[in-house]
Structure formats: C-alpha cells, structure tokens
Specification:
Layout lengths: L8 E2 L5 E3 L11 E5 L23 H16 L11 E5 L8 H16 L5 E6 L6 H9 L4 E7 L3 H6 L6 H13 L3 E6 L8 H13 L4 E4 L4 E2 L3 H7 L8 H17 L4 E3 L6 H5 L1 E3 L6 H21 L6 E4 L14 H6 L7 E4 L5 E3 L1
Parallel strand pairs: 3-4, 4-5, 5-6, 6-7, 7-8, 8-10, 12-13
Antiparallel strand pairs: 1-2, 2-14, 9-11, 12-14
Helix pairs in contact: 1-2, 6-8, 8-10
C-alpha cells in the first residue's frame, strides 16, 4: 500500500503530531569501498565516475581493496554500541566477476572476524540480482542492498540508457526484500524524462516498497558525458536549484511521514567532479535548503489538519539550525502560518513535532 505524506495524527487533546526526520546515529560509521564502473554493463548518459577515481580494472580492484584494508586496520574494534559498516559503492557489485566478488567478500569476512565492522551493504542494479547472487550476499552477511533505480518511469529509464524498464525495477526491489535483505533505493530527480511530477510518483512508488532508506541524487551535467553533449545541443535542461529544493522538499516530507530515512539529498562534494560540472542544481547548502522546505511543508499540512489558528509548535531541536532556510528566506512563510518565533519552541528529546 502506498505511503502518502500526512500528519502523524491528532491526539485526544486536539494536538497534531508529525515527523521531521531524525539525525543519523552518530555511533554508526561507514567504511566506503568505491568500485567505479566495475561490473557496469555500460555507461549511463549522466555518469562520470571516472572524474572521481582512476581505478577502473581488476588491478584497480586489488589496489582499492588493499587501501580499504589498510584504512580499516587503523580502526579499533567496534564498541558495544557501534554499528560500523563496510559499504561497497559504485559500479554494479552483483555483476562483478565471481572472483572479484570473492575478493570483496574476503575483506568483508576478515573485518567482521576482527570485530572492525558489524554490518555490510552494497550497491547494484535491479536487473543484476539472480537468486544465486542474492544467496551469496546472505551467506557473507550483507545486510542491505542499495539499488540504483534512478526512476520507475520506463521512458526516463530508456532516455538515460539504463537498460531496464519499470517492471524490472520493481522486480529487483521485491527480489531484495523477498530474499530477506534490507532494501535501499537511489533515485535521480531531474534525469532525462524526469519531471517533478514523475519524480514525486517515483518517491510514492519507492515508499510503497517499504525500503530501509532512500537516497536522492539531483541530476548534474558533468563534462565528458552524453548528457554534456545534449546540454550543449539544447536537448537537455537540468533543474534549477529552486525547482530542486521545492520538489525534493515535498519528497523529503513524504519520506519523513512514512518514517523512511533519506540518507542523501545531493551528490557529495568532490573536487574533481565539481571542476568538471557544466550545469545542474549544485549549492553548498542544498541538503539544508531541502530540509527547510520539507519542514515547512510538514507544518503547513499540520496547520491545515488542525483546522484553526495554531497556538504553539514544538519541534525537535535538530530542526533549529535549518528551519528558516538561507538567510531567513522562509520566515515570511512561517509567519503566514501564524507561527512566528514567539510561537515556536524546541525540545532536545522530541521524536516528533507537536502542534497545538
């Protein structure tokens, strides 16, 4: 059943409760192992992993794994509350040659045996999930599989040369959860064929699949890609920052109310990648701007559900740093809701917002 954005609920005393997201557990750490292009059947029109690393072949894989092992050796064993995690990112992990996957699993098994990690995840494509490889992931203790879905819209997938359609994307998600693995879904708002309405439908579809987490990567235009050529030819126009903030703000609120964490709202800073960018919604505080928009939309929905002028809003303290947006740009919209600063309080231990 599709999960839709709505306030958490009205209590018996006439209050409205709604979710505002939560900080990630600080005792959790990711040890990333980036495998650029490895296992990929081709290059998508927007992809520029080569701008982030020079490792592209089997010799590169050995070097990458050796570097990861060296970095992990500097870490102490996990404490009782630590949930340190090994993550194989980039490329298509489940389409690696069997020998290369075995090398990755050797690292995983050794680090778990040493107590340096407790969890593991990998990223892959939805059409690279045979029963045999899913069983292999389970046997080696992989906990979560992130699927680079990008979109559930077949036309958008075709335009970006993903090589699969909506039905394959859905089947891949269900294969992960049916195998007993946690599911992560990565979406690419603004990719060719993705309008704001298409993306919001993608988010609704993703939430209906009960994922453990989502990632939103707004589509950018890096040099050296097919998308760069299309941009120069006027065949592709990326979303603006404003359009991205507005659309992803709505999407993030949908995920908040469904209690599904969104663990990434933009492409991570990378000097080589940023130097190669031609266009696209890039902003140093993009994540905070999206969170601010999402919080305001959640509050608007709650005020509408309350059905009267609000008296007081209590927010988790984690919202305090971003709620007014860039240089207070959202203050007039908060005032228009009847929620000036004098009516807003912050609680350190709050897990949801409360409107009365």
């Amino acid at each position: 059943m599709s999960r839709l954005p709505q306030p958490l609920g009205r209590t018996g005393s006439g209050r409205i409760l709604f979710f505002t997201g939560a900080r990630q557990n600080r005792s959790s750490r990711i040890l990333p192992v980036f495998l650029p292009f490895l296992g990929c059947p081709g290059h998508c029109v927007y992809c520029a992993q080569d701008k982030q690393t020079g490792h592209t072949d089997s010799e590169g894989l050995r070097a990458i794994l050796a570097e990861a092992a060296k970095n992990a050796a500097d870490l102490p064993p996990c404490g009782p509350q630590e949930r340190r995690e090994l993550a194989f990112y980039g490329g298509t992990f489940t389409a690696l040659p069997a020998a290369d996957r075995a090398s990755c699993f050797e690292l995983l098994d050794a680090l778990r045996c040493e107590g340096r990690i407790r969890l593991a995840r990998c990223s892959t494509r939805p059409d690279a999930l045979s029963p045999a490889v899913l069983d292999e992931l389970l046997r080696h203790g992989v906990d979560l599989v992130e699927l680079g879905i990008q979109s559930f819209e077949s036309e958008a997938l075709s335009l970006s040369r993903r090589g699969y359609d909506r039905s394959a994307a859905l089947a891949g998600c269900r294969a992960v959860t049916d195998a007993g693995l946690s599911l992560g879904i990565q979406l690419l708002p603004g990719m060719p064929g993705s309008t704001p309405d298409v993306f919001l439908d993608d988010v609704r579809t993703a939430l209906s699949l009960s994922p453990a987490c989502l990632r939103f990567y707004p589509c950018l235009v890096p040099e050296g890609t097919t998308l760069a050529r299309w941009f120069r030819e006027g065949r592709f126009a990326p979303w603006t920052v404003e359009q991205t903030v507005r659309t992803l703000g709505e999407a993030l609120n949908m995920a908040w109310q469904a209690q599904v964490p969104v663990i990434r709202l933009s492409v991570a800073p990378e000097s080589a990648f940023d130097a190669a960018l031609l266009a696209g919604p890039r902003h140093p505080a993009l994540g905070a701007l999206i969170q601010a928009e999402a919080l305001l939309r959640a509050a608007e929905n709650a005020v509408n559900a309350l059905g009267r002028a609000p008296e007081r809003l209590t927010l988790p303290q984690s919202c305090q740093g971003f709620m007014y947006g860039d240089r207070g740009a959202l203050k007039p919209r908060w005032q228009a809701l009847g929620l000036g600063p004098e009516r807003i309080a912050f609680a350190r231990d709050a897990s949801a917002a409360e409107l009365v």
